[in-house]
Amino acid sequence: MSVMDRLSALGLALPPDWTPRGRFLPYRRDGAVVYLSGQINEWGGQVTLTGPVQDSPEAVAAAREAAQVCALNLLFRLWEAAGGDLDRVDCVLRLGGFVNCVPGFPHSPKVIDGATDLFIALFGEAGWHARTAVGVTGLPGNAAVEVDAVVRLKP
């Protein structure tokens, strides 16, 4: 089953294209390695969840979903970098996750698991990665979550 078929089987799809909020490239390739710029939980130009994320089970669950939106945005840019073929992904090397949260918020890793879980579901063993998950006091558009990634492609 292809990565796009697995994505569809999960009831998910890649987002529509969008304009970055700043002056940067959405990705940069260095040989087989793709450095993906941070993506917020934005869909169709609208932030899906704003911060700061509160310390409650409901807020953590909503932020996990926001992290999944970030992952879908990363996948769109990765799809572009891979010439429209996500089956070229050899492995996800690293994710960096940022949660716009209240001071003392202890659940940043649980939130960023929303992105991690999607990469593992789509790429299996190759989706496992090194990661950071930190709390911050603000993100672009007051988004709740931002995630960046480094991925290696097959030749």
Automatic annotation (TrEMBL):
Residues 6-143 form the Endoribonuclease L-PSP/chorismate mutase-like domain. SUPFAM superfamilies: YjgF-like. Pfam families: YjgF_endoribonc (PF14588). Gene3D superfamilies: RutC-like (3.30.1330.40). PANTHER family: ENDORIBONUCLEASE L-PSP_CHORISMATE MUTASE-LIKE DOMAIN-CONTAINING PROTEIN, ENDORIBONUCLEASE-RELATED. This is Endoribonuclease L-PSP/chorismate mutase-like domain-containing protein. It comes from Roseicyclus marinus.
